[in-house]
Design brief:
29% of the residues lie in helices and 23% in strands. Strands 3, 4, 5, 6, 7, 8, 9, 10 and 11 form a nine-stranded mixed beta sheet that branches. The protein has a two-stranded antiparallel sheet with strand order 1-2. A hairpin with a 6-residue loop joins strand 1 and strand 2. It is globular. By secondary structure, the protein is an alpha/beta fold. It contains eight helices and eleven strands.
């Protein structure tokens, strides 16, 4: 039986996988995603369903699909959604992102979100656990394959939101534009005001016109070294 805990007092309950813990990256991504006017969303590589759960808790008119290759993670994602009474507005599909054309018709969703693996194959040693290895390295889905899938799944005007590493931002933008996913919004995430960014949050638009809006940085700590007010708000600690 999964061990469910409230994500915040009165909020949705969530059970974590031992080998895939709920990450700050996923929480920040869910807070960054604009859920309106989207009605049909998909999380590519949804793991245990955290991003989909957070989006569904925020927007009652949203319907979410999760696509996950690992059956154990997919089973836990289903349990998390069921435990929160969200099975009517969600579904988890066990499958490969690279098989997106066989799994879904073109333009099936108006919102695609992803917290993909950050590192190319061969960029470092991998954890022995296959699920953790796939979450870290592009062994099962490259950045190119991720953007191919997003472009297929979105109609013109659909949104693609993801979190990634700043050192791959140039490659990310080039790959997105090659698949008609125009970068429209960028937010850098830093630990503090005087530290370099550690994450980037990006929103692209399928078939969008050129024009990138760079938002104020998201700082994880305040001047006193404690959690910033924005991070406390995102985690419902205010």
């Amino acid at each position: 039986m999964p061990d469910f805990h409230e994500l915040w007092p009165g909020g949705p309950v969530f059970a974590q996988a031992e080998n895939q813990r709920l990450s700050t990256d996923s929480v920040l991504l869910a807070a960054f995603v604009p859920t309106r006017p989207a009605r049909r969303g998909i999380d590519l590589g949804c793991a245990s369903g955290a991003v989909a759960l957070l989006l569904l808790a925020r927007e009652t008119q949203l319907d979410m699909t999760g696509l996950e290759l690992d059956e154990r993670a997919a089973s836990l994602a289903r349990a998390n959604l069921e435990q929160n009474g969200l099975t009517g507005r969600s579904r988890i599909v066990t499958g490969d992102i690279r098989a997106h054309r066989q799994l879904f018709p073109a333009g099936s969703f108006d919102l695609v979100v992803a917290n993909p693996p950050y590192f190319p194959v061969g960029s470092g040693a991998l954890p022995p656990d296959p699920a953790r290895a796939a979450a870290r390295s592009e062994t099962s889905c490259s950045l190119e394959e991720l953007c191919q899938a997003a472009a297929w799944l979105l109609p013109s005007g659909g949104r693609f939101c993801l979190v990634h590493r700043p050192e791959r931002l140039s490659e990310l933008f080039v790959t997105m534009t090659a698949h008609a996913l125009e970068p429209k919004r960028l937010r850098l995430v830093s630990t503090s005001a005087d530290s370099a960014p550690s994450l980037v949050l990006v929103e692209g638009r399928r078939g969008g016109r050129p024009g990138l809006r760079i938002e104020a940085p998201l700082l994880l700590t305040g001047p006193d070294g404690g959690e910033s007010a924005e991070l406390r708000r995102i985690y419902h600690r205010i």
